[in-house]
Amino acid sequence: xxxxxxxxxxxxxxxxxxxxxxxxxxxxxxVELKQYQLFDSTEEFELTIVDNTLNDRKSHFRLKTNEFSKxxxxxxxxxxxxNKIIELVNKLNSEKSKVSFKYNDFSAYPSVQxxxxxxxxxxxxxxxxxxxxxxxxxxxxxxxGLDSEFCVSKNRPxxxxxxxxxxFSEMNLFNYLIERTKKTSLIVIYYFLKNxxxxxxxxxxxxxxxxxxxxxFIRNGLFYYCGIPLHPKEHEITNDIDNEYRYYxxxxxxxxxxxxxxxxxxxxxxx
Length: 271
Fold this sequence. Notes:
The chain is of the alpha+beta class.
């Protein structure tokens, strides 16, 4: 399982982290890091370096023992996916920049733009690993945001941004996020790379103001697309679909797959 960054303690016992792209931009970095013990962001799992300097592939970090890979919800994606995460984090963390999340609500006609989250000072980090439930795998989120004063409330929710290119949330993780948003103010946002400007965008309105337009998100235990809460229809339930997973299957079939294929979402069918 690849990791995009590693944590280590230097000779002064200072906590440091390093991104995988540094392994490729400076070959001496790999030699230097061999003197340190490397960990993932939880500091629970040890990492090692996959050195690809002698071939055309990129060097990266991975779990030292494959046995630990089952402790994470699996996920792999493209280089474009990884680059977009870095780009979004850099833009979101711009100094003195106010960001508001909005969506076009198609639940009624005509559609109107509404606020999903409106805030100013948040801190965003990429590749954030968090425990889900005791005894269950860890989740590694593309981007995680928290109010800079570490205050969590309805008006200052924790924010997860998942960039979707080749893969979507794993089924059990999706169900966990649904349950988690029922109990807390957490909001999960999906950012699609296919037809990017159509489904989502980060727009600079003014030098210090940004609008993050989204189309798909999870809030209060429901998956929304353009303000429409999705509910599997009773006639959609068949004997060959596990009842526990029918919500995930419905979302993936009606929203995720069409977006990946560049197809239109049939709004009327969702209402």
